[in-house]
Amino acid sequence: MEVILAKPRGFCAGVKRAITIVRQALDKYGAPVYVLHEIVHNTHVLRELTGMGAVFVENLEAIPVGSVVIFSAHGVALATEQKAVQLGLRTIDATCPLVSKVHRRVMRLNRIGYDVLVLGHQGHPEVIGTCGHATGAVHVVSSPEEVNLLQVADPGRVGYVTQTTLSLDDTRDLLVAIRKRFPDISEPERTDICYATTNRQNAIRELSADIDLLLVVGSKNSSNSNRLREVAEHQGVTARLIDHAGEIEPAWLRGAERIGVSAGASAPEVLVAEVIDWLRAHGASTVREMEGDDENVVFAVTPC
Ligand code: SF4
Predict the structure, then answer these.
(1) In angstroms, what CA-CA distances link 259 with 7, 207, 226, 231?
(2) Binding site membership of 196 for ligand 1 (Cβ less than 6 Å)
(3) pTM score above 0.85
(4) Mean pLDDT score of the chain, rounded to an integer?
(5) Does residue 95 have its Cβ closer than 6 Å to ligand 1?
(6) Which of 126, 145, 146, 295 is catalytic?
(7) For the chain, which ranges sit under pLDDT 70?
(8) Active site residue 289
(9) Residue-number span of the structural domain to which 125 is assigned
């Protein structure tokens, strides 16, 4: 049995930056430091930061006045930022810069009177934060069927942004429907699907030709990890999303000679190493990494 590691995989620049911001705040202010929502969608990361003194909360009212609150990498609505200040909290923003760029485009489009279509998953924190930057009309769209139901003020004044972790394939189909309905739509220079999402999905597409089974390390609520699983499935490869090696079932390996392993943008490499150990203990004789480009993207962290 051979194991082939996807390249690239795992932590992206936005996740590294968000985790660094929480660690830095703990160093500077001491525990507890509050984080609104999961800083990134990974249970291992959350457990580690909780052990250091981070407290994850779902609403601002749960935070004592005067405390430090960090906004997660997915970003929050403008109203949430304002409310935190009104509640007397000291705010630190760990929103990924690529998500902030999407927020700015939403505001710009609304400012010139455009309806904004947000291509994404209803209810995902990033989509909530993005819609929460609208100062005018905004509509979440997740399927071509929904495009025909949209009611906009002026079909000639519509623009779109996307969630950063969407499937490249699904978005392509969605954009065909959107361009058909709104031929004059204002498009970003490129979709907002980020470099990390794009590179990880492309790696899985390539890897799928060589494997019988794909294990994706990532938490169940991680959007980009779920998309990696789907990309492999669309290529006809059985794929499993696992939080850690302990979730692998030996029966999955039956008949699999080549097993691919990848990790979502919020999953640390230590979990991949544990999966490799598990596979070695269950018969993997060789482990190699596929050919792929190195990622050199780094987002600066301003001292808090
Ligand atoms: S997946 Fe992309 S948008 Fe999300 S945190 Fe990472 S780099 Fe930023």
Answers:
(1) 14, 10, 18, 15
(2) yes
(3) yes
(4) 97
(5) no
(6) 126
(7) none
(8) no
(9) 101-181
